[in-house]
């Protein structure tokens, strides 16, 4: 049984930083896309970014480009989301995802339970 367990969410002031971690178990994702989505209250879930295993560049949504960094440690089967210069509009539940596909839309096979990130102004 595949499980994705997120950690690292919380509350931070605008301009601050948080680092989310997502540990996968049940199968290896070293040759699969892993990434992050988020869902703010009253809004649809949106992709934050994802990382692949080969030459495919790491993808970031325009809203987080230059502020967020996604990395992975295949030995630990873990993906990370480093969030800097956080803004109140980054407030959302953040979901880890694995086995992402990007055509026709970006979605995932496996999902974490979500972790709350709240940025105060």
Can you characterise this structure?
It is a single chain. By secondary structure, the protein is mostly beta strands. Helices cover 0% and strands 53% of the residues. The strands form two sheets. Strands 2, 4, 5, 6, 9, 10 and 11 form a seven-stranded mixed beta sheet that branches. The protein has a four-stranded antiparallel beta sheet with strand order 1-3-8-7, with no helix packed on it. Strand 9 and strand 10 (107-111) form a beta hairpin. The protein is globular and about 40 Å long. The model has no long low-confidence stretch (mean pLDDT 95).
How many H/I helices? 0
Distance between the termini: 40 Å
* Multimer state: single chain
Helix proportion of residues, in percent? under 10%
Task: Please provide the count of β strands.
Answer: 11
Order of helices and strands: EEEEEEEEEEE
Mean pLDDT: 95
Low-confidence stretches: none
Strand content: over 45%
The biggest beta sheet, please? 7 strands, mixed
Globally, the shape reads: globular
Short description:
The chain has strands at 3-7, 10-13, 18-25, 34-39, 46-51, 59-60, 68-73, 78-83, 92-101, 107-111, 115-120.
Topology of helices and strands:
Blueprint: E1 3-7, E2 10-13, E3 18-25, E4 34-39, E5 46-51, E6 59-60, E7 68-73, E8 78-83, E9 92-101, E10 107-111, E11 115-120
Parallel strand pairs: 2-11
Antiparallel strand pairs: 1-3, 3-8, 4-5, 4-9, 5-6, 7-8, 9-10, 9-11
């Amino acid at each position: 049984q595949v499980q994705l367990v997120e950690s690292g969410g919380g509350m931070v002031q605008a301009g601050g930083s948080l680092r989310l971690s997502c540990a996968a178990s049940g199968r290896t994702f070293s040759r699969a896309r892993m990434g992050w989505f988020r869902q703010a209250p009253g809004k649809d879930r949106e992709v934050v970014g994802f990382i692949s295993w080969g030459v495919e560049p790491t993808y970031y949504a325009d809203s987080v480009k230059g502020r967020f960094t996604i990395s992975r440690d295949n030995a630990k089967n873990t993906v990370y989301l480093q969030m800097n210069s956080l803004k109140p509009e980054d407030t959302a539940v953040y979901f880890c995802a694995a086995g992402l596909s990007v055509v026709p839309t970006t979605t995932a096979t496996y999902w974490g339970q979500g972790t709350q990130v709240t940025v105060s102004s």
